[in-house]
Amino acid sequence: MSEIMLGSDDEIRISCKGVNVAYWDNLAIKNVSMDIPSKQVTAFIGPSGCGKSTFLRTLNRMNDTIDGCRVTGEIKLDGSDIYARGMDTVFLRQWVGMVFQKPNPFPKSIYENVAYGPRIHGLFHTKAELDDIVEQALHGAGLWDEVKDRLRDPGTGLSGGQQQRLCIARAIAVNPEVILMDEPASALDPIATRKIEELIHTLAQNYTIVIVTHSMAQAQRVADKTAFFYAVPLTEDDDSNLIEFGDTKQVFESPIDERTRQYVEGAFG
Amino acid sequence: MVQIIDPKYKVADYQAQVMRRRRAKSRRFQAMGIAALAAAGLMLAALLSSIFYNGVQGLFEERMTVEVTFDPAKIDPKGTGDLAVMRKFNFDTLVYPVLYEALDIKVKGRSDRDKRRKVKQLIGLGASNQLRTMIVQEVGRDPVSDEPVLVSGGTQLGDTVTVELTALSTASNPYAQPLRDLGILKTRFNGDFFTGVNSNDPGYYGILDALVGSFWTLLVCFLASFPVAVLAAVYLEEFAPRNAITDFIEVNINNLAAVPSIVFGLMGAFVFIYVFGMPGGTALVGGLVLSLLTLPTIIVAARAAIRSVPGSFREAALGLGASRQQAMWSFVLPYAMPGIITGTIIGLAGALGETAPLLFIGMVGFQSGVPATPLEGTPSLAVGIYNAFGSQFDELKNQLSNSTIIVLLFLLMLLNGTAAYLRYRSEKSK
Lengths: 269, 430
Known about the structure:
The structure holds two protein chains of two kinds. Chain A is built from ten helices and ten strands.
């Protein structure tokens, strides 16, 4: 779609042009071009199988680990092509962190969960610095007050919502610019979900956040921008599976495309 | 009784019939299962009771306590005082008259000849040697003449000493019971069994060399197979591309597990001893040969354990910017370790019981002595079962063989119990 409306004051963090993703011979993402604004929340919505999670995972090259996955087109983070030859995924994933659908803390202590990223990237010199990073990250994820007395307890002993916030703390501990969230609240109860959503709001002051969600209500609550993806079958006539992208309010209240209108009104999905 | 189904409906009759048949079928199936279990249990019970009946007897032994006079007229009739002369004497003959006297058997004459023969059979094979060392001992060989250097054993000719000698075939000998009644034959715990080494005299036979040999063998086997197997499993599971070559390797790992162990023995004898010139009959070669047997077991177990690690850990680590190696070392391997250890223990338990390949490479236990390093010739415990039995049937040897089996079974249970405990603990923590 050419109607990608970003206000002139939006600073662009990730710029995608003509991105295609294929698994062996099956095209999962076709010709997606969009600009993801800095320090805002961008939501990807769409019916199951529309490729929104696949597209999210191309943004930090998590698809690299999947056999037969091929990405073409151009994705630039702050102007540098992340699929360029010589781009180190280790550095890329330090800049672009990820939170997964199911909370997946490591089978280690709360402290070690958060400390793992800084450790592998060598972000500290002394134990005191690491302690500080861990505390800041836990503060940032709104978890510090709940766990400060039991940092040595296993991370897997926390509740589902706390585990997910631990995963967010783990992601921000390496000081990323972008945080990708793949349906971060879909495995949580409403109260935990609310906390995560509030956290996303707070985090957006410092980080660029891209979130995939199944819940249109959630997209409306947390997102500044919303992108609507529509699924296969991808034929010659469908020029892209990104149907519409714009301010959340506009996408939900006055969608331009007929399919977007039907989806946000709950006609299918 | 309340009629639930109206009998006028024929379909109800039919249904009831079907239900009856179905229940009968499931009862029959259960009965077959119980019968199969009972049969297996019975066989196990028969095996174990035979082993324990004989084996426990082997842990106790009868010793003969006699007062022996070292008669100079017999040992050194010419009074030369030469130790070499005394050494040639058959010291068993000192014991005979003592027993004859106790049993009221004539020392000479035709009438009691058969009785005397029976009594002689009671004396252990090592008795003569035991008495000889009291008089004369060999401490080495003269470098010039190559004659043995002899020293006095401390006991003087003419002394009368109470000695405890090994006894043979006490269960079937008719004179054993009278000697027991006289207090000459006494049952005691067979301490030699745990402190002695392989010996032709069942009275002195012990398994210490076999125990230590098995320990060295398993140590070598573990050191040789564990790192290789874990690295192979990690590579195949985490890094190797899926293609014809890796499929071929996978099939052949399973083939390796199916190769009869004696084939590895032959191969080991050729490769390790003949080609590489390693010392034959040692725990080093034995361990290397057995590592070929445990390798596929550990690889298969390790791969299963690695596969069972939730993909979410790997994903989370990669998402933080860890490399695949870092994700593997930090999360995949530690999480899979209980499973890998369990597989390793089961593999080592299998190796502990292997006999055929070890006989092939010469771990036959002809060496007397406890091996201080894996580079010394030694039997293993499983070979010890064979050694204890010896080449011809003897009830004491049979008992010792079974005693060795008890020790081996105990160790196996210990190993498998450890494996089961580790599995239980890791499942509880997940």
